[in-house]
Amino acid sequence: MDTPSNTPSASTVQKLINFIHALANLIKSLGAILGFITAAYAVAVNYFPTSAIGALFAGAGDPFVATQRFSEGFLYYEVGRKGEQTSYGKLVVLPGGELPDFNTLTEGLVLQATDKVYLRPKPTTDEDFIRVLGKGQCFTILKIDRELAAGELRNAKNGGWLRVRETTCPQ
Protein backbone atom coordinates (compact mmCIF):
# COMPACT_ATOMS: atom_id res chain seq x y z
CA MET A 1 0.00 0.00 0.00
CA ASP A 2 1.39 3.41 -1.00
CA THR A 3 1.46 6.27 1.54
CA PRO A 4 1.15 9.88 0.38
CA SER A 5 4.47 11.76 0.35
CA ASN A 6 4.88 15.19 2.02
CA THR A 7 7.95 15.95 -0.10
CA PRO A 8 7.34 18.62 -2.75
CA SER A 9 8.10 17.78 -6.35
CA ALA A 10 11.12 19.22 -8.16
CA SER A 11 8.91 21.53 -10.21
CA THR A 12 7.28 22.94 -7.06
CA VAL A 13 10.69 23.62 -5.53
CA GLN A 14 11.84 25.32 -8.75
CA LYS A 15 8.70 27.50 -8.79
CA LEU A 16 9.37 28.52 -5.17
CA ILE A 17 12.99 29.42 -6.00
CA ASN A 18 11.86 31.46 -9.02
CA PHE A 19 9.30 33.28 -6.86
CA ILE A 20 11.95 34.13 -4.24
CA HIS A 21 14.29 35.49 -6.96
CA ALA A 22 11.48 37.58 -8.44
CA LEU A 23 10.64 38.93 -4.97
CA ALA A 24 14.30 39.82 -4.34
CA ASN A 25 14.49 41.69 -7.67
CA LEU A 26 11.29 43.57 -6.83
CA ILE A 27 12.74 44.62 -3.46
CA LYS A 28 15.94 45.85 -5.19
CA SER A 29 13.88 47.85 -7.69
CA LEU A 30 11.75 49.38 -4.96
CA GLY A 31 14.92 50.33 -3.06
CA ALA A 32 16.30 52.09 -6.15
CA ILE A 33 13.02 53.94 -6.67
CA LEU A 34 12.90 54.96 -3.01
CA GLY A 35 16.51 56.20 -3.23
CA PHE A 36 15.64 58.31 -6.27
CA ILE A 37 12.57 59.79 -4.57
CA THR A 38 14.60 60.59 -1.45
CA ALA A 39 17.27 62.36 -3.52
CA ALA A 40 14.65 64.29 -5.50
CA TYR A 41 12.97 65.32 -2.24
CA ALA A 42 16.24 66.58 -0.76
CA VAL A 43 17.07 68.62 -3.85
CA ALA A 44 13.56 70.03 -4.28
CA VAL A 45 12.99 71.04 -0.68
CA ASN A 46 16.48 72.37 0.02
CA TYR A 47 17.29 74.14 -3.26
CA PHE A 48 13.85 75.05 -4.62
CA PRO A 49 11.67 75.53 -1.53
CA THR A 50 9.45 78.23 -3.03
CA SER A 51 8.90 76.48 -6.34
CA ALA A 52 5.91 74.30 -7.13
CA ILE A 53 8.13 71.21 -7.19
CA GLY A 54 9.59 72.10 -3.78
CA ALA A 55 6.12 72.52 -2.32
CA LEU A 56 4.97 69.28 -3.95
CA PHE A 57 7.86 67.28 -2.50
CA ALA A 58 7.52 69.03 0.85
CA GLY A 59 3.93 67.85 0.94
CA ALA A 60 2.49 71.15 2.06
CA GLY A 61 1.13 74.33 0.56
CA ASP A 62 3.56 76.44 2.59
CA PRO A 63 7.14 75.30 1.88
CA PHE A 64 8.49 77.42 4.76
CA VAL A 65 6.48 75.37 7.26
CA ALA A 66 7.42 72.12 5.55
CA THR A 67 11.17 72.79 5.84
CA GLN A 68 11.37 73.63 9.54
CA ARG A 69 14.51 71.55 10.10
CA PHE A 70 16.47 74.05 7.98
CA SER A 71 14.67 77.18 9.08
CA GLU A 72 17.34 78.82 11.28
CA GLY A 73 20.83 79.94 10.49
CA PHE A 74 23.00 82.97 9.75
CA LEU A 75 22.77 85.45 6.88
CA TYR A 76 25.21 88.22 6.06
CA TYR A 77 23.77 91.75 5.73
CA GLU A 78 25.62 94.85 4.63
CA VAL A 79 24.98 98.28 3.13
CA GLY A 80 27.31 99.90 0.59
CA ARG A 81 29.24 103.08 1.21
CA LYS A 82 26.57 105.17 -0.55
CA GLY A 83 23.67 103.38 1.15
CA GLU A 84 23.16 100.95 -1.72
CA GLN A 85 22.66 97.21 -1.67
CA THR A 86 25.87 95.24 -2.19
CA SER A 87 26.51 91.91 -3.85
CA TYR A 88 26.93 90.38 -0.36
CA GLY A 89 23.93 91.99 1.35
CA LYS A 90 20.99 90.87 -0.76
CA LEU A 91 18.33 91.58 1.88
CA VAL A 92 15.80 94.36 2.44
CA VAL A 93 13.56 95.10 5.41
CA LEU A 94 9.80 94.61 5.05
CA PRO A 95 7.38 96.19 4.70
CA GLY A 96 8.54 98.73 2.15
CA GLY A 97 11.83 97.21 1.02
CA GLU A 98 13.98 99.62 3.00
CA LEU A 99 17.74 99.19 3.24
CA PRO A 100 18.68 100.53 6.69
CA ASP A 101 22.19 100.60 8.09
CA PHE A 102 23.24 97.44 9.89
CA ASN A 103 23.57 99.40 13.14
CA THR A 104 19.86 100.33 13.11
CA LEU A 105 18.52 96.78 12.61
CA THR A 106 16.59 95.28 15.52
CA GLU A 107 15.58 91.78 16.48
CA GLY A 108 12.13 90.85 15.19
CA LEU A 109 12.39 92.77 11.90
CA VAL A 110 11.42 90.83 8.78
CA LEU A 111 13.91 90.72 5.90
CA GLN A 112 13.31 89.60 2.33
CA ALA A 113 15.93 88.23 -0.06
CA THR A 114 16.31 90.24 -3.28
CA ASP A 115 18.42 87.48 -4.85
CA LYS A 116 19.74 84.12 -3.72
CA VAL A 117 21.30 84.10 -0.25
CA TYR A 118 23.27 81.48 1.65
CA LEU A 119 21.90 80.29 4.98
CA ARG A 120 24.90 79.20 7.06
CA PRO A 121 25.17 77.19 10.28
CA LYS A 122 27.70 79.65 11.79
CA PRO A 123 28.40 83.35 11.23
CA THR A 124 31.30 82.91 8.83
CA THR A 125 31.89 82.27 5.14
CA ASP A 126 34.43 79.62 6.17
CA GLU A 127 31.45 77.36 6.97
CA ASP A 128 29.68 75.58 4.14
CA PHE A 129 26.11 76.79 3.70
CA ILE A 130 23.07 74.85 4.91
CA ARG A 131 21.23 75.67 1.72
CA VAL A 132 20.70 78.34 -0.90
CA LEU A 133 17.53 80.36 -0.44
CA GLY A 134 15.81 82.11 -3.29
CA LYS A 135 14.65 85.61 -4.12
CA GLY A 136 11.47 86.55 -2.29
CA GLN A 137 12.00 84.41 0.80
CA CYS A 138 11.52 86.12 4.15
CA PHE A 139 13.35 85.86 7.47
CA THR A 140 12.83 87.18 10.96
CA ILE A 141 15.93 88.52 12.74
CA LEU A 142 16.50 86.50 15.93
CA LYS A 143 19.89 87.91 16.96
CA ILE A 144 22.30 90.51 15.62
CA ASP A 145 25.99 89.80 16.01
CA ARG A 146 27.45 93.30 16.19
CA GLU A 147 30.81 92.05 17.53
CA LEU A 148 31.69 90.29 14.26
CA ALA A 149 30.57 93.20 12.10
CA ALA A 150 33.82 95.14 11.71
CA GLY A 151 36.02 92.18 10.80
CA GLU A 152 33.69 90.85 8.10
CA LEU A 153 33.08 94.04 6.08
CA ARG A 154 33.95 93.91 2.44
CA ASN A 155 33.32 97.00 0.31
CA ALA A 156 30.63 98.47 2.58
CA LYS A 157 30.15 101.10 5.23
CA ASN A 158 28.55 98.65 7.69
CA GLY A 159 27.26 95.11 7.94
CA GLY A 160 27.42 91.88 9.84
CA TRP A 161 25.88 88.52 10.62
CA LEU A 162 22.26 87.99 11.55
CA ARG A 163 20.80 84.89 13.15
CA VAL A 164 17.49 84.42 11.33
CA ARG A 165 14.51 82.12 11.06
CA GLU A 166 12.60 81.59 7.83
CA THR A 167 9.08 82.94 7.96
CA THR A 168 6.21 83.64 5.61
CA CYS A 169 6.35 87.08 4.06
CA PRO A 170 3.90 89.67 5.37
CA GLN A 171 1.03 90.48 3.01
Features:
171 residues, alpha+beta, 2 domains, 5-stranded antiparallel β-sheet, 7 strands
What's the helix and strand layout?
Layout: H1 10-47, H2 52-58, H3 63-66, E1 72-80, E2 91-94, E3 110-113, E4 117-119, E5 131-133, E6 138-145, H4 149-152, E7 156-167
Antiparallel strand pairs: 1-7, 2-3, 3-6, 4-5, 6-7
Account of the protein in words:
With 171 residues, the chain is of the alpha+beta class. The protein has 2 domains: 10-58, no CATH class; 71-167, no CATH class. The protein has 4 helices and 7 strands. The chain has helices at residues 10-47, 52-58, 63-66, 149-152, and strands at residues 72-80, 91-94, 110-113, 117-119, 131-133, 138-145, 156-167. It has a 5-stranded antiparallel sheet. Strands 4-5 form a two-stranded antiparallel sheet. α1 crosses α2. The protein is rod-shaped and about 105 Å long. The N and C termini lie far apart (91 Å). Mean pLDDT is 78; it is low at 57-70.
Q: What's the domain count?
A: 2
Uncertain stretches: 57-70
Structural class: alpha+beta
What is Rg?
27 Å
Rough outline: rod-shaped
Distance between the termini: 91 Å
Share of β-strand residues? 25-35%
Tally the helices: what do you get? 4
Largest sheet: 5 strands, antiparallel
Average the pLDDT over all residues and give the rounded result.
78
Question: What's the helical proportion of residues?
Answer: 25-40%
> Count of DSSP E strands?
7
Element string (H = helix, E = strand): HHHEEEEEEHE
Strand order of the largest sheet: 1-7-6-3-2
